């Protein structure tokens, strides 16, 4: 499980944003998490309390927007919804796939107090 590492690097990014934007605290952070980004939203939620424990982000709310994983088959050109554990074309069975969306993991929005 690498979600704790992902969260701690996200908090470092927030540190930088707080300096850059001169914020005193952040009320809420909204993340965009792609279904095929390799990050599991449920694990992020599970790790979050530990990641922010005794930091200045302890009271910050976390919200996640899940972006569907859409891939296109390079063989039959069909586009379909994909999950990480099932990455093959439902039409022809090919694993030669091109991701169209759902690979992102990013901070979408920050709401400061
Ligand atoms: Zn196909």
3D architecture notes:
The chain is α+β, with helices and mostly antiparallel strands. The chain has one domain (3-112): hypothetical protein PF0899 fold (2-Layer Sandwich), CATH 3.30.2320. It is built from 2 helices and 6 strands; from the N terminus they run H-E-H-E-E-E-E-E. A 3-stranded mixed sheet has the order 2-1-6, covered by helices on one side. The chain has a 3-stranded antiparallel sheet with strand order 4-3-5, with no helix packed on it. Strand 3 and strand 4 form a beta hairpin. The model has no long low-confidence stretch (mean pLDDT 93). It binds zinc ion (ZN). Zinc ion binds next to loops.
Largest sheet: 3 strands, mixed
Q: What's the quaternary structure here?
A: single chain
CATH class: Alpha Beta
Number of domains: 1
Low-confidence stretches: none
Distance between the termini: 32 Å
Order of helices and strands: HEHEEEEE
Q: Would you report the number of β strands? A: 6
Please name the CATH topology.
Answer: hypothetical protein PF0899 fold
CATH architecture: 2-Layer Sandwich
Question: How do the strands and helices of this protein lay out in sequence?
Answer:
Layout: H1 3-21, E1 26-34, H2 41-52, E2 61-67, E3 70-73, E4 79-81, E5 97-101, E6 105-112
Parallel strand pairs: 1-2
Antiparallel strand pairs: 1-6, 3-4, 3-5
Bound molecules: zinc ion.
Zinc ion (ZN) binds at residues 73, 75-76, 78, 89, 91-92, 94.
